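Appendix B, Record 12. Input sequence as logged:
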Amino acid sequence: MGTKDLSAIIDLAISKEEEAYDFYMELATMVDDRSAKDALQIVAGEEKKHKEFLVNYRDKGYGNSGLKMTSVVDYKIAEHLEAPEPKTGMESKDVFLIAAHRERSAHEFYIGLASIHPAGPTKDMLLAMAQEELKHKEKMEYYYANAAFPQTSGG
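Logged structural output:
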C-alpha cells in the first residue's frame, strides 16, 4: 500500500474521531444528570486522544506502542437493544445506550479497515484502534446497566 493510500485511510479515521468527539460533547448537553455529563465528556476526551494518536501516526510514523491490547467484556447490550433518538432531557440510561451504539459502529469501522490490510503495522494499529472503541462500548454498556437497573437496598 502506498503512503498516499495509508494517509487517506488515517485521514478518514481522524475524521471519525473528530465526529465522535463532537457527538459526545453534543450528547452531554442533552442530559441533565451530572455524572452522565461527566462520563460523556471523559469519553469525548478519549476520542480526542485517539485523534492525536492518529495524527502522530500519520505525520511521524509512530507505531501502535501507545495503544495496549487489553481484554474487554462485551456485554452485547447494543446488539440487543435499539438506540433511542437523541433529544434534550434524556434519561442517563438512554444516553449511555446511544453511546454504546456509537462505539459499536466505531469498532466495526476499524475492524472493516483492518480486514482489507495485510498483516503488518497498519493492520495492527487498526486492530488496536478497534479494541479502543470496544473498550468504550464496554464502558458505556456498564454505565447503561447501572443506570437502567439500579441496585436496590435489598441486594
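The chain has five helices and no strands.
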